[in-house]
Amino acid sequence: MTAYAAALGQPQCPICAGTVFGPGPKGRTAPNGAMPRCAGCQSLERHRIFRIMFDRLGVETFAGWKAIQFSPDPTVDASWFASHELSVYGEPGGLDIQAIDRPDAAYDIAICSHVLEHVGDDRAALNELLRIVSSDGMLYLAFPDPFREEVTRDWGFPKPEKHGHWRVYGADVVKRFAAYIPDQPVLAYRGEDPVTSESEGAFLLPRSAGRHRWIVERLGASVSLFAGPSA
To answer: What fold does the segment set 45-225 form as a domain?
Structure first.
């Protein structure tokens, strides 16, 4: 936060340093009444929470990395990476994450935020995302907070009134991970939005023991091996 914003007691966006905020989608506000959408970069709570996570990892690390991002959002900055490919399903050049038309280990990081709930075969999607990540890279994965529900509700079709989601993940997603990707460690990160004080979590899937240690060393108590809400 800039000294000026701090002196005024204003919240500041960690992405663009903006101090002006407005209502979120459908006019929503945070439970405490705070306005969630940054007027500058259009970020919402999750974007700011996970930008702070990436800042703590140290974005200078990514200077030589090849990145692919599924669906645009302001969590990451394309300029951090040696190369950055953006894929938006249904748009020209967009990829289907259930069958990604790219070679094995083509990228050092795959960024997949609020996409997995939109695909029919999430088992295939998870395995495809991991397949295209290099042996010392990682997958960043986020979807609506699974701990708001106890059990995953999967409708078997994209539900129009749920924004085209095939499912709402519940706390039992840990079992889904264990069944789909049994040999892949999953690290759960949880952070707080400096604008609204809302908290949200995401997942980091390191492809090597060294990358696992690197994440834990940099994120400390904010990250843990994902084993469910009561572990």
So the answer is: Rossmann fold (3.40.50)
